[in-house]
Amino acid sequence: MMVKQAVHDIDTPTGPMRCYLYRPNAEGPFSTIIFYSEIFQQTAPIARAAAIMAGHGFVVLVPEVFHELNPLGTVLAYDDAGKDKGNQDKFTKGLEHHDSDTQALVEFAQRQPFCSSLVGAMGVCIGGHLAYRAALNSDVVGAFCLYPTDIHSNTLPCNKGNDSLSRTGDIQGELALVFGRQDPHVDVAGRQLIYAKLSETKRCFSWLEVNAQHAFMRDEGERYDPALALQMYGQAVAFFQRVLR
Asked: Rounded to whole angstroms, how far apart are CA atoms 67 and 4?
């Protein structure tokens, strides 16, 4: 499917949030995927990833995950300065504010005539964590989480007991988690901790570990694995075609 794009500034309890919308250039309604980016916000690789998913018959919303902390439209570069600013933002914004952003995105989707009532979440890096976190929202029926960071370590700000790992038992939707075995951000012990929590709480989930570095989906830089990325897009499309039907 060909894809059309739009930009919306959505009201949230913590201020306006810029959101980039991708959708099939065809009659709807279509199911919605909230696509959470890396710490760099909507870079060119994130935009291309969103367009790929939209071209398979989904409305894709890409929010600026740190909208409170940057001017609207901010994109951080894949360099040391961008990484430092993105990590600063990551450790500043509380998970509760990410939760209210998700609720605003769900409500936005529910108001659009080209969206069905079904909403899923997808993300990479911190965005994988935010997709996992989004599944705490009862309107989010499935989440595809690519190398999600900081779930195992409880290093993102939040109220006591409200970290994402501790809240795993409250997730009702289906989860798919993908990790790279050579990813230094989520080591073997961290992956085992997440798997154990999902199993202990009897969540509905699938689990895949691949031989890849962190950010292997990003089609810029030395860690990009095109063949593996293509496989993951195929799995994500199949996942959402099933859970958002």
From this structure: 23
**Is residue 101 left, alpha or beta, with left meaning phi > 0 and alpha meaning psi from -120 to 50?**
alpha
CA distance 60 to 64: 13
| Strand extents, DSSP E, the chain | 3-10, 17-24, 30-36, 59-63, 115-124, 140-146, 174-180, 205-210
Among 199, 211, 210, which residue's Cα sits nearest to residue 175? 199
Closest CA to 62 of 112, 5, 137: 5
- Separation of alpha carbons 171 and 140, rounded Å: 9
Question: What is the 8-class DSSP label of residue 132?
Answer: H
What is d(CA 130, CA 150) in angstroms, rounded to the nearest whole number? Answer: 10
- pLDDT tens track for 218-227: 999 999 999 9
Residues classed as catalytic: 125, 183, 214
**186-232 tens-digit pLDDT:** 999 999 999 999 999 999 999 999 999 999 999 999 999 999 999 99
**Beta-strand relationship, 17-24 and 59-63:** antiparallel
